[in-house]
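User: Predict the complex with nicotinamide-adenine-dinucleotide.
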Amino acid sequence: MNIAIVGTGYVGLVSGTCFAEMGIDVTCVDVNEEKIKSLLQGRIPIYEPGLEDMVKRNVEAGRLHFTTDLLTCLDNVEVVFCAVGTPPDEDGSADLHYVLNVARTFGQNINRYTVFVTKSTVPVGTALKVKAAIMEELAKRGADVEFDVASNPEFLKEGAAIKDFMTPDRVVVGTDSERAQKLIAKLYKPFMLSGERMIFTDIPSAEMIKYAANSMLATRISFMNDVANLCELVGADVNMVRKGIGSDTRIGKKFLYPGCGYGGSCFPKDVKALIKTAEKNGYEMRVLKAVEDVNEHQKGILFEKLEKHFRGDLKGKIVAMWGLAFKPETDDMREAPSLVLIDRLTKAGCTVKVYDPIAMDECRRRIGDKVVYCKDMYEAALDADALMLVTEWKEFRMPSFAVLGKTMKQKVLIDGRNIYDKEELNENGFAYYKIG
Ligand SMILES: NC(=O)c1ccc[n+]([C@@H]2O[C@H](COP(=O)([O-])OP(=O)(O)OC[C@H]3O[C@@H](n4cnc5c(N)ncnc54)[C@H](O)[C@@H]3O)[C@@H](O)[C@H]2O)c1
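Assistant: Here is the predicted structure with nicotinamide-adenine-dinucleotide placed in the model:
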């Protein structure tokens, strides 16, 4: 089968490469010429473990192609996936103009039956807008070409994206067309050999499932952050509380880790967009508003702990920051807590020395010389008055506290991910603060 994937970002590039890995002929399309140029030269524009080798392998096998022009492949494909960005609009609702642009190009150029599948995260009702845009373009050129629309939200996690796509927990497809359903089922069949996990729904339900899933995960995080903050006040240890509640099978162990707030390209914008969808329909998502509120507060919590330790006197302090990406195994810094912390620290007169195994270039691109970039974690900590652990990359898990104790100016460690042992830190003479 031949397909096109429009939007060659974290979702489009991974999906396209994984489809190609299963023997499907895939053309990845992006308007960003730099991105396509670098892919054509064999350079991957994002960091995702395992992706580079997989892209190379499938390009060499002649199954994976890159172009800036959807028209070059439109006559040869049966399905077009739309995986372009849907960033928040000024009011928090999803900005659909990238998706609708792709729909218009599709309508202006298809010459035979093709399915338009929206993989981008889009609010309920978007498929109707996509369909209307395509029909309008077909009408403008007086073309009578059959097409269908479907919604196929993506659940991959950055950092584990290939595994998630190759062995998904489920694949959700919303469509009201049997013909489209059959085509999409055929495409995903190679991913279902270990067990059928396709869920077919109507289109609004598929669109809603993605937002409800992300909102539920964000809710668990904010709930645990709230519990952690209360634990501190009443003398309980949130790590013990987490184990105690996670062992209940009705609750489960995952997504119960408190920290310094959720970030990334999905949770913040999807929670906002669902709140907005509700508002537009005359309903208030009270739980989600609280989820957002808790998260905004939590992003500043490491700063508040530092401020408390130094009794408000932060001017001239040197703060080492370990981790910039919004989570480990990615270079993505969209809505990362590190950005909020850097902003507050520099405004308070601190010098921030940063190190991240992968996201240094991305940080430079975003904030330039606002911080001091260090070549490794120990260089960042050299002469620092305090160390903040913001992203729990594996290499930060077992540092030498003896070395840190000798090279830091003051022994203060603020652990935003609860990965260190309080007793070990105290034995090494550190003032140690964790979440909860
Ligand atoms: N990143 C994730 O982990 C993740 C997971 C699940 C779902 N999603 C959703 O998938 C969608 C894409 O997310 P992403 O993180 O891959 O975004 P991204 O920003 O990494 O990539 C989007 C790409 O689309 C391209 N684009 C924009 N308009 C285009 C057009 N008209 N034609 C061709 N290309 C165009 C951009 O140049 C960009 O390269 C979003 O709706 C997001 O919410 C993301």
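The first strand starts at residue 2 and ends at 6.
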